[in-house]
Amino acid sequence: MPAPVDIEESNAQLLAAWTYFSKGLPGHRIEDTDGVSVVLSGTDMILLNVVTLSSPAADLPDLERRARRAVELARAGGVPWLFALSDSWSPGGDAGATADVLGRLGFKPAVSLTGMVADALAPPRRAPSGLELRRITDAETRAAIADLNAVTYGIPIAAGRASIAHESLWGDRAFGRVGYVGGQPVCAAATYIVEGIRYVGFVATAAEHRRKGYAEAAMRGCLDDALRGTGLQRTVLHATDMGRPVYEGMGYRAVTRFHFHAPPQA
């Protein structure tokens, strides 16, 4: 059973990381009002435009009130967005009842992530051959990680470049790696220092190069860079179902589930 402090941390890291990604982008909108936290990047990168609760829902009527308020606040942003909520912040921890309320309001399930944490990583299981890891230090490598994520998640390339490739995401608290095979980018990952924790995001591998250990190698590269640069050991991420087995093998443990919902049609 995950410790309450780990659950609280996973919720806080989701909001803090998304805020970090968006706060330097032109046209961003970040606010916390009426129990709702709004983080909009100002771009069409829907995965970076998230509205969530700023505290656990007290009961189902409270959830409904705040979900309705989320729609009002986010629609004013003029960009595609998702409503995110963890099982642990659902009223009474009842994810089923929460889904019923959101469904009645017109929300539709989009994607689910698992909050995960590790205090130390397990040793690498294998060393992939033929992979060249480069640090993200210039426009070319920023574009590479943006494009890999856009293709992986079915997002327009332009939306990825307007957000993930923006130089505001790559300051001195960012450590990224892109993996190349035959001179072509095939995988990428990034680690950000978020509230004293190494937060991992933007992990992606080209479809034809999956299951070769490339994503893990890119992750370990940027995690090691962040460790050397800061001395921070603890690391948090929010995993897709496809990525979760890789992260468990690296030593991460699951904390709580987050469900992202597409909003009701206007």
TrEMBL record:
It comes from the Bacteria. PROSITE patterns: GNAT. Residues 131-266 form the N-acetyltransferase domain. It holds the Pfam family Acetyltransf_1. InterPro entries: Acyl_CoA_acyltransferase (IPR016181), GNAT_dom (IPR000182). CDD domains: NAT_SF. One of its GO terms (molecular function) is acyltransferase activity, transferring groups other than amino-acyl groups. This is N-acetyltransferase domain-containing protein.
